[in-house]
């Protein structure tokens, strides 16, 4: 059974920069038995990144839909696992006001980082949290999952000319903020039928170019990559073939 100290040592061995920005996607089940369960996983991540910025997905796209178009920042549950759902409720964690692809952040300038997601009109629009990951050259850490759960790639699709990933028409959504104010947040939804299920086809090239490194967190296999280097690899692929990520 893993203890917090074990997980902290593994984060160091993986190569995570404790003073940088870290975006995490994870499968709690893949981590294995942890003393203290999910709360210990969160404690390890927050302690390790105490002098940096820790960012987790806090997506609600399963709950916030065209038929149910309101996301309440305080009460709408995350749909991407138990760890993000617990994390968003922790003291000093700030959740962004995106109707479907919110993030939650803790650490240095967390509030400033999440501010502005209510003003983008795509899942990962310019100026929003995913764009800021690129600006900061965040590390993206995938724990027990592969590139198919790497939402940052949706941002690259948007910014670098992928065809067919977004709906042409805006859908009306609303976010209820911390003060109970209802904000109109229209959005171009993801349109590709396969969503992110083709993203793993990018992994072999990332490995070949030395951009993707592997490690362990608990029992889970980890993947670590720089946001800027990932975009620098994927953008030319999309420039040559804008439909590349629409095909398996």
Topology, element by element:
Elements: H1 4-14, E1 21-26, H2 28-31, H3 37-48, E2 53-57, E3 70-72, H4 82-87, E4 94-95, E5 103-107, H5 110-114, H6 129-135, E6 139-143, H7 152-159, E7 174-176, E8 182-184, H8 203-208, E9 213-217, E10 220-226, H9 227-240
Parallel strand pairs: 1-2, 1-6, 3-7
Antiparallel strand pairs: 2-5, 4-5, 6-10, 7-8, 9-10
Helix pairs in contact: 1-3, 7-9
Description:
By secondary structure, the protein is an alpha/beta fold. The chain has one domain. It is 29% helix and 18% strand. The protein has helices spanning 4-14, 28-31, 37-48, 82-87, 110-114, 129-135, 152-159, 203-208, 227-240; strands at 21-26, 53-57, 70-72, 94-95, 103-107, 139-143, 174-176, 182-184, 213-217, 220-226. Strands 4-5-2-1-6-10-9 form a seven-stranded mixed β-sheet. It has a three-stranded mixed β-sheet with strand order 3-7-8, with no helix packed on it. The model has no long low-confidence stretch (mean pLDDT 96).
Describe the global form.
Answer: globular
User: Which strand-content bin applies to the residues?
Assistant: 15-25%
Largest sheet: 7 strands, mixed
Q: How many beta strands in the DSSP annotation?
A: 10
Structural class: alpha/beta
Summarize the structure.
With 248 residues, the chain is an alpha/beta fold.
Key structural traits:
globular, 10 strands, 248 residues, 29% helix, seven-stranded mixed β-sheet, three-stranded mixed β-sheet, alpha/beta, 18% strand
């Amino acid at each position: 059974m893993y203890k917090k100290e074990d997980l902290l040592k593994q984060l160091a061995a993986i190569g995570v920069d404790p003073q940088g920005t870290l975006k995490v996607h994870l499968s709690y089940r893949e981590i294995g038995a942890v003393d203290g369960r999910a709360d210990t996983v969160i404690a390890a991540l927050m302690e390790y990144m105490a002098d940096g910025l820790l960012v987790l997905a806090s997506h609600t796209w399963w709950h916030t839909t065209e038929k149910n178009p309101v996301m309440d920042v305080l009460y709408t549950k995350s749909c991407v696992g138990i760890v993000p759902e617990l994390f968003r409720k922790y003291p000093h964690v700030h959740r962004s006001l995106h109707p479907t692809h919110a993030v939650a952040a803790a650490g240095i300038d967390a509030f400033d980082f999440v501010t502005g997601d209510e003003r983008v009109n795509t899942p990962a629009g310019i100026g929003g949290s995913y764009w800021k990951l690129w600006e900061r050259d965040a590390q993206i850490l995938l724990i027990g999952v592969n590139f198919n759960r790497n939402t940052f790639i949706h941002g690259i699709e948007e910014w670098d000319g992928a065809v067919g990933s977004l709906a042409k028409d805006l859908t009306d959504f609303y976010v209820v903020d911390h003060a109970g104010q209802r904000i109109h947040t229209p959005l171009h939804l993801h349109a590709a039928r396969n969503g992110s299920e083709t993203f793993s086809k990018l992994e072999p090239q990332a490995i070949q170019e030395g951009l993707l490194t592997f490690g362990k967190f608990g029992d889970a296999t980890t993947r670590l990559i720089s946001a800027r280097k990932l975009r620098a690899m994927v953008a030319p692929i999309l420039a040559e073939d804008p439909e590349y990520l629409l095909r398996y």
